[in-house]
Amino acid sequence: MLRFLDKYGVNCLHINGDFVGYDSLVNTVLDALAADGKPIVCPHPSDSAEALTIKVRYLSDKIQPLEYIDGKSDWVDLRAAEDVELKTGESKLIPLGIAMQLPKGYEAIVAPRSSTYKNFGIRQTNSIGVIDETYCGDNDQWYFPARADRHTVIHAGDRICQFRIEKHQPQLFFESVDTLGNADRGGIGSTGKR
Question: What are the dUTPase-like domain coordinates in residue numbering (predicted)?
């Protein structure tokens, strides 16, 4: 069985010398399945995704256990592990009360929640944080580096940031060339004022 695009760019299958459109094939299969009177259950796309288990060591009893809420967001909220007061212009590392052993070949991306600035007036000083799989010791606590734009108090248990994990990028090789062979596109505002 081979996959092709027909002349209209529609996905087709080549089965036993005939081109069969996906819609036609799906309808034929659904009709055959429905003929036996049993309900047809279509899995949710996340059901086929690779599920991962992450070892977490909690370093504070002031935070709730991490929770992945399927279907709501791919991001997991992280909480301040202690009360922190920041004066305007002050920066601090806010402990998140966790250490993790990420799966091999993955890294974590840590970013502020959409409400972090509104609720607390803080910014993440490194824009986003990247935590690689080697940062996995018992006391390798995760922190949120914050700078306050106004006086603020963050309480233990407040949700201040979020994370997700991503696979490492593939190994890269760089080739030096005299020309890339493409027209210049421009950048840094070159496409217009609005």
Answer: 77-191
